[in-house]
Amino acid sequence: MTMEPIPVTCLDSQETGLLMRIGLWLRDHRGMVQKIQWGVVILYVGLVVTPAFLPLPDHYAHLWDNLTLFAQFLFWGIWWPFVLISMVLFGRLWCGVFCPEGTLSEWASRHGQGRSIPRWLRWPGWPLVAFIMTTVYGQMISVYQYPKAALLILGGSTIAAMAIGYFFGRNQRVWCRYLCPVSGVFSLLAKLSPLHFVSDADQWALYRKQFRQEYRQYQNHGLPKVQCPTFLPLKQLNSASPCHMCGRCAGHRDAIRLEARAPGSEITSGATEATRWDFLLIVFGLLGVAVGAFHWSASPWFVTLKQALALNLIESNWFWPLESYAPWWLLTYYPEQNDVFNLVDGVALLAYIAVTALVSGLVLSATLALSGRALGRWSTQRMYHLSLGLIPIAGAGVFLGLSALTISLLRAEQVPVFWAESVRGLILAGTGGWSLWLGWRITERYAGLRKRVTAMLGYALAVAWSVGVWWCLFFYW
Ligand code: SF4
């Protein structure tokens, strides 16, 4: 007897809405998706590797006649800022369909040893630690300015992603789920997205029942299975944070769909619990370490700190730290460009970022704690939940910090950028307002109107601080 193939889904693209059809398209066109992925890998290798072997551009070089400058503009000025925006618009579609590191890691995993994932690798703090380490190290070696530094950090990360893929998992993305330095940031931004794959528990159960009735002849077959590359429990799929939007589970058991939702509703509905790591990444990472990393080169306080350190050393007859340098892979060292950090520069840089992260993180923790306390008895979980409301302004700051390079490269090419300040102001005001709105909606879950208004005083201080640290960089210094 010839048997009909067991359907993974009964959903037919003809009878579903546009979003569901897009999800099914992603599922049914893996070949096309893989071609796109390998195309991005080729572009990535070209942009990251080639410039590192070319001479550094001279003062007369332009974006259109110098590959290094062009790659710098495309990679740091366009690619990265717009990847951040894509997280807010489409969830982590970038990760599942375009990211070259994810593609290479999954490819290595397909041909690797398939070992089980050790416990240390599943530690949920890795994305925060990796984000802080790459941000700080990137500043020490001037990753945005020099191609060798970019190759070291990005190439190193890609090799690590492939090695992890080779050793652990099978046809999966262990690196992306547990170790990628930007996965924590992407997870947070994806919570704002208006799109997500979601599972309908009732439909899931109904499918199971119908399947058993209609396909009795397949007694030896279990229900159809889909392997999520990021190890998500498909039956409970309700968050855009860890989902890479690869579409492989679209229509699975007639229960999983790509759906629209109100932007930020994942945060306000409390669909997923905020974790300690989310809180630390927002408060000490995005609004702490990242602020320090973008601030220092424009900050008068950094200059004062450096001068004070140098003066103290001179008065103590300790000249060697002022005359000692490190190789380019430890501290910026490009004498031909008149760009060299001595040990004092390096120490001042690390101290500045650390103090900024600590001060900003503590101010935000205190204001969020006060806000949470105003809503009722002390609850750490409530403070974590409130911190999620700061994601729009935290993400906007990093976007503006990255796009500052875009603006300065355009300015160097005499492209009119008179609009930049107004756009920055609008983005800061808009995302600050969005954060306030999210905060107001979060408080709704915990108390009545009077307590909510009191709580919003503390929360508004947190938003004002978050806007203020970026406003300093773009409008004050
Ligand atoms: S849940 Fe997993 S399989 Fe489904 S779209 Fe997200 S990453 Fe892909």
Largest beta-sheet details:
2 strands, antiparallel
- The strand count comes to 4
Can you give the helix content as a percent range? 55-70%
Spans where pLDDT lies below 50 across 5 or more residues = 1-6
DSSP strand content: under 5%
How many domains make up the coordinates?
Answer: 3
Q: CA-to-CA gap between the ends?
A: 79 Å
What is bound: which ligands?
iron/sulfur cluster
Please, what is the average pLDDT? 91
User: How is the largest sheet built, in terms of strand order?
Assistant: 1-2
Order of helices and strands: HHHHHHHHHEHEHHHHEEHHHHH
Class inferred from helices and paired strands: mainly alpha
Shape: globular
Using only C-alpha atoms, the radius of gyration works out to 25 Å
Number of contiguous helices: 19
Task: Give an account of the 3D structure.
The protein has 477 residues and is mostly helical. It has three domains: 13-187, no CATH class; 195-268, no CATH class; 276-476, no CATH class. Helices cover 62% and strands 3% of the residues. It has 19 helices and four strands. The protein has helices at residues 18-28, 30-49, 67-90, 93-98, 100-110, 126-140, 147-167, 174-178, 183-190, 201-214, 265-268, 276-295, 300-315, 320-323, 343-374, 380-388, 391-412, 420-444, 449-476; strands at 195-199, 256-260, 333-334, 339-340. It has a two-stranded antiparallel ribbon with strand order 1-2. Strands 3-4 form a two-stranded antiparallel ribbon. A hairpin with a 4-residue loop joins β3 and β4 (339-340). α12 runs parallel beside α17 (391-412). The chain is globular, with a radius of gyration of 25 Å. Bound molecules: iron/sulfur cluster. Iron/sulfur cluster (SF4) binds at residues 96, 197, 228-230, 232, 237, 243-249. Residues 96, 197, 228-230, 232, 237, 243-249 line the site of iron/sulfur cluster (SF4).
